[in-house]
């Protein structure tokens, strides 16, 4: 028995490690068909071409808010239908579709379930619609609970007696009740889980644990940027992380979800501080320059910056320049694809030399409106402290160092002021500074809300989120992110015009300790004085001019506010059969404001004489727009399918940033006011504009779904090079042979999938910075005759040219036991050619 649901009636809300199930009732739904026979008089429009009858019923269910219930044996999956109905009643549609197939239909009294049964099978009918009052003694009531492999209850599971329309669904607690006869077979089915069958015996309770269904590789499609392809038929090396894998991890940055999950993808976080930088390397270093190895990030078709906008002089070592992807809410992500080899990346030309990271955000789905709320709160502590010396061991080592250095022990008294741990501090005192400086409990709060739904032509998704993560340092420091997004998809009635639009906005509020205390916690002498006095004030009397209380850093303040917009619009129109015109438009804007203060309160009182406070202000903006017109052509030629793509890219990025130090503050209360300073020093003030244009083409031929050839080529133009070197040519070829589809392997049951693939290509990079080929100047800090001057900071170099990367790969992909066991192995060779002057 099978039942289609046009919408789930319940929503699962997770709070921490527990789950709260909330049943959402929709006003008017149960009253919509109070005269249940009228459901057949509803008028709908249905358009399907060469589709299974099962899909047609699904279309009707979505359009009319009804369910269909029938035995799977009743509908042949080989029976394909081409049917078009405009504003026809459901009764008329079903008569036209089912009468010739000898299938009858009737409406249940609930007003929204339509039962299907054989028209000429009296035995089937008598068992399907047996009156519960006339059941004999062999019938019994069966109850039970349905759970998943994590022992969580499953609501909405279909429970039916096989071969009949006698069925029910589990409630929000996973419980169900059904009447069945001894010897009947109960079928338990639920989307995303493997169906199970249980034979009814003398038991009155049947509890079942459903296992998650393993998808066949044929059903999985991967995003390769300009097109999508079945995972089995891809010729390039593309790896994928899905939203399910991302949601299982307590992360604040999408890149954290990639750690340890992909071969050849190295992800390292510079610090444990929330919002700190990540370094990602796809198949190692490709450039001699440290800033030329970042991959390309694309979010919903729009390029996203890979470099931080924070100013190093402001953020210091605590953030390591931050990470722009911390502005992306992981809960909004549907999937992340990593493109590795030349076949996958060459379509991006000069931008794909270091690999490509494609991020796709969540989309709405057809069906009744769904509301999902996810609330969680977590705690974090340093899991393991380094084993350090006790005070006696530490002092013995320190004294021996003087002897080893030839100074002898005790050293000359003139040395004493520089070594307070040996001569000024209590030599019997011991403190494990790790517990004092990095021993606090960090709290993580995550709240995510989404509303999605729509019909078969228009779907929407609205998301909102709040994330906060504190640190293990003393004081109230945290990283906060507020996010919101809107995604809409539309398909015209004739299914020729498609439109997809998305808008995502995030604001990061980063209030962190300006200095990472981790190194201090493991290097500070164990007999250092106490951090606080008995009255709770900071202890400034450390009897040393060289070492001060590390809590002085808590008096300083660091604030980083980042606002980020990502918008995209994609539209396509089928001009003639198989030919589509498409355009991708995108715009991103990021604004960063930073502040770090150096107050008088961070200076020990004995050194305050003549001192003033200072503040550093940083501001940066980056804006990028992109337009990509494309034409695709799909044609069946012989026993194969040809797919052809031609397009172009136009992109412009502008960046403006400045850093200023304000001095002379006499009151810590005014440190955030620039006008309260007595002097200012402009550390940097920069403006950049980058323009990029390209033409690309791709041809793919799939013969008999066994032999695949994929060719890509791209010609890039960049404003980062001078005349004669502005354009570069890149391309790749990929081939694949799916030998598991050959006839000589058709009868075996072990190997379910086997493919050999190889690719060879050339990618490049223009990530050398802007204006590097020109002579550049900067103002001098030493004016001549009271007139500021200019000094040369770089000489022109007309020979600046593209970096190139030659890539070769050959691989073997295998699947065993219906792809439950997958095996991949291969060889790749990346060879970089740095064509900048002074490099071989």
Defining key terms:
mainly beta, 17-stranded mixed β-sheet, 41 strands, 840 residues, 10 helices, disordered N terminus
Element layout with pairings:
Layout: E1 2-3, E2 10-15, E3 18-23, E4 43-52, H1 53-64, E5 67-70, E6 80-89, H2 90-98, E7 103-107, E8 113-118, H3 122-128, E9 139-147, E10 158-161, E11 167-169, E12 175-181, E13 185-190, E14 193-199, E15 208-209, E16 221-223, E17 228-230, E18 238-242, H4 243-247, E19 265-269, E20 278-282, E21 296-299, E22 302-304, H5 312-319, E23 333-339, H6 342-345, E24 356-361, E25 367-380, H7 391-404, H8 420-423, H9 433-437, E26 442-454, E27 458-470, E28 478-491, E29 497-512, H10 518-523, E30 557-576, E31 579-598, E32 613-637, E33 640-665, E34 679-703, E35 707-718, E36 727-737, E37 751-765, E38 776-779, E39 790-794, E40 803-816, E41 821-833
Please explain how this structure is put together.
By secondary structure, the protein is mainly beta. The protein has ten helices and 41 strands. The protein has a 17-stranded mixed beta sheet. A hairpin with an 8-residue loop joins strand 19 and strand 20 (about 280). Residues about 1-35, about 120-135, about 315-320 and about 835-840 have low confidence and may be disordered.
What portion of residues is helical? under 10%
What is the helix tally? 10
Distance between the termini: 69 Å
Given the C-alpha coordinates, what overall shape results? Answer: globular
Low-pLDDT stretches are 1-37, 122-137, 316-320, 835-840
| Rg (C-alpha, Å) | 34 Å
Structural class assignment? mainly beta
Which strand-content bin applies to the residues?
over 45%
Which whole number gives the mean pLDDT? 82
Strand tally is 41
Main sheet: strands, sense, barrel: 17 strands, mixed
